[in-house]
Amino acid sequence: MARGRRVPRPALASAIAVIVVLGDGVPGDASHALARGLRQLGEEVVLGARVTDGPEADDIVAIRCAMSSGHEVAEFLARVEAAAHPVHAVVLVSTGVTAPAPGELAALDADQWEEGVEAPLQRTLACFQGSYRRLRGRGGCLVVLVPTMALVGAAGGAPWAAVAEAQRAMAKSAGRSWGHEGITVNCLAVPASLLAAAPSAEDTATSGGSGGGTGLDRPGLPPPSLERSPTMDTEVAPVVASLAARAWAGVTGATIAVDGGIWMTP
Hints:
The protein is an alpha/beta fold. The protein has one domain: Rossmann fold (3-Layer(aba) Sandwich). It has 9 helices and 7 strands; from the N terminus they run E-H-E-E-H-E-H-H-E-H-H-E-H-H-H-E. It has helices spanning 29-40, 70-83, 104-107, 110-135, 149-152, 158-178, 192-195, 201-207, 232-243; strands at residues 15-20, 44-49, 61-64, 87-93, 140-147, 183-190, 255-257. A 7-stranded parallel beta sheet has the order 3-2-1-4-5-6-7, with helices on both faces. Helix 1 packs across helix 9 and helix 2 (70-83) packs across helix 4. The longest helix has 26 residues, at 110-135. It is globular.
């Protein structure tokens, strides 16, 4: 397709595929909350994960996706379209990751780095490639949810931060490469506590057990300026839906912070 040709976004009656990239591969609270919020906004949502025998929530359909290659992800999206409507947006969620412990970087060995960084990035690459295969020629969007530690790092969180920052770089490169196909690629930076499987001891102590606005997300910073940490279903999901809408088709390669006003990065 010649560059410069504008590809329109798909019409209504289409679906959003939410793919769980990290963690143990089982849809968890974060992915279910995101899917629930998108459904409340009128979107049709299908979850994709390496393991689909976890707990079900709100009758949200989950389809297995091994993420071993771009072809595997493209086949997953084809199954989504067979079960629902044509996919116009793919959302990658790094959820179910165990909150890091201080001193983790110094103790990492090669196998841990492979499991915690290289393998997730291979799955991320497969998701990017498979999404492109399904969206090219008709347009759509790819949204990657990353923890805010991708913007500034976090003590004890080197593997997760490395994956998230690499995902942001991949999103910017894909946004530049695929714009002429009508495909936008953006990142949403959300508090790590929304994505982590469990809060660390420091998080619990600094948040009073609330699980939001924790030391994992904002070491040494004041509380969120909005005086609350965002929720996945009521505050993150609407931003995802906006990025998938025609009105936002001019935004690509961006990282938008949805963290309640903690980092306020450019």
